[in-house]
Amino acid sequence: MKLSFWGAAQQVTGSMYLLELEDDYRILIDCGSDLERSNGQVATSTNQTGFFPFEASAINLVLLTHAHVDHSGNLPNLYREGYEGQILCTEPTYALTELLLRDAASLNQKRINELNASKKKRVKERQAKMQKDLYLDKQVREAMENVVPIAFNRKFRVNDSVDVTFIPAGHLLGAAHIVIGVYENGEKKRICFSGDIGRRNYPLLIDPAPVPPVDYLICESTYGNRLHENHQTPEEALADVIKRTCIDIPGRLIIPSFSVGRTQALLYTLNKLYSEHNFPTIKVFSDSPLALESTKVYLKNVRLLNQDARQFYDENETLFDFENFEYLESAKASKAVSNHSEPCIIISSSGMVQGGRVEHHVAANISNPYCTILMIGYCAEGTLGWRLLNGQSTLTIKGKEYPVNARVEKVDVFSGHGDRNDLIRFVQMQSSETLKRVFLVHGEFASMQAFKDTLAEVGYPQVEIPKKGQTYEL
């Protein structure tokens, strides 16, 4: 049995791992977009033979840990390249992935249309390449028609030699650790792919569940070299920022936020502040059609949320709707918010301030000293969010340069990733005597190296940091 690392190897995004069994059965675990190489946009191919470094038609099965595009974003391209099999994931992952991929396809179509309108030869050449590489709604439909939803914690037998189990991982609604059991040469081997490991006591989500004993562990390492900085609860951290930015002064708070997962955690926390803590009601706008659709998925899966959220829903018959809250569905309504004269909170995507309606809100307010931009998640290098966090004095948005007079703050209480202690706890569920090897993925190299050293200190010396394209015999 061979395991090859084709993504999220010594970097954070682009998760994609190929497991090849001795009987030539091939399983692809995750098929994500490389957001670092493409500055938050869907990556395009870099070779002449195809989009992937392997034959898509030779893959027998795809397993998906969760919906985020750095894990799911290239599934439509896999079908374009000839894959004809199924995708196994949980029911919420199926629903959220479809929303994210359709949104990406819509953006791809807009990019192609813009290039089509150009008469420049160089642009035309670029347009031809993009049409070859970027999937559209047709490819999304083909991928989603082949999804088979799998329940949590129920062993699913793929064939006589392979079974898979999806174990709750926290991090995002529907997210899973995937344990694969492989029978070869009279021996059973178990491999666990962590996906993204959630943190405990996160708004809405259940805590990561224990993983049974395995032989090999593929573990994310996003926070492998650090702890979460904020020790407040999400309600405390958000209340502090709102008080300083919208109550003590008549200001405006802009929160760039991913539409799937992060926005729901924010809205739920705001709802709790207003309903349980008598917090002054500030007008809140959620400016993302994708967030609205994602919220509907959360409401359909209340039974999979944590006990606190289920109890809140039972008592209030809502999770996300509260006084002075408004979804902005049209582009016209989105732009009109710039004329809102009272203090307000604007939650808009994307979380990296790269594409989406949030660019307009940042451009309209970046020079306003009474505005605060609150960053609440990871930003890939080169994105507008990354530039804000690195303290640039000016910012260029859609070709226009703006002085940065707004205040830029950051909190990590809404990060869906577990920190170093959470990652250690995840690995320590495995016996150091029986665990054969740990592979670190989904992290910056410095984070991986630090986490490897930490694991050695706590008794796990059998740690590898694979390079992209590296293959191991298991």
TrEMBL record:
Beta-Casp domain segment(s): 263-388
Signal sequence range: none
Provenance organism: Nibrella viscosa
Domain spans labelled Metallo-beta-lactamase: 13-231
Descriptive protein name: MBL fold metallo-hydrolase
Entry keyword annotation includes Hydrolase: yes
Pfam families from the UniProt entry: Beta-Casp, Lactamase_B, RMMBL
Keywords attached to this entry: Hydrolase
CDD domains attached to this UniProt entry: TTHA0252-CPSF-like_MBL-fold
Source domain of life: Bacteria
